[in-house]
């Protein structure tokens, strides 16, 4: 099955799995997109990795969707942003969403609400989206995308996510300062053993401005066979 992955800059992705649509971490106030939330069709599901402003700022514009995240965050979205439907899940869990299965995994990051960090809204995470339910039996026919969220390098990528959840493609933060930089993100791509790696969370703000070519060089230096897919804003990559 094909999976359409559209990057709207920063950590914002639109994912289409056989007609089931997801919007991950909607934040359109970034230099890679010319779109505003009003330009984007409401997806079936809004997936939120954590509650920092640059990941949930535009979530309320899609309140007709079902919001998915840790219960603390989905509860906040219901109370404050008008969502009527939610799926509160947690790290390690898998839920069925339309034609896809969504597994939440940990991310090494913080999770304060907005830029003032007034509230703690549960653990940050990342999402693995697949057209097949994960099992210990390898399935070469599955198509699987890993959105790592905001994270540093962690051994679970090598020990759990790569060998058992088997992503074909991974969107990895590489802007440094607040997340992995090019070196650690390249190691993550190698550990995950993905066919394609898509950089994100870079060049949005001055602290995370990098030369994205450094990421390409670091991936090559690991010996990984992953193809680095550097997308323009609002560009779609088809995962097959």
From TrEMBL:
- Which Pfam family, any one, appears in the UniProt record? Lactamase_B_3
Q: Does the keyword Ubl conjugation apply?
A: no
| Gene3D superfamilies from the UniProt entry | Ribonuclease Z/Hydroxyacylglutathione hydrolase-like
* Keyword vocabulary terms for this entry: Hydrolase
- InterPro entries per record: RibonucZ/Hydroxyglut_hydro, UPF0173, UPF0173_UPF0282_UlaG_hydrolase
What's the domain of life for this entry? Archaea
Q: What are the GO MF terms of this UniProt record?
A: hydrolase activity
> What's the family?
Belongs to the UPF0173 family.
This chain's protein is named: UPF0173 metal-dependent hydrolase SAMN04488124_1257
Q: Which organism is it from?
A: Halogeometricum limi
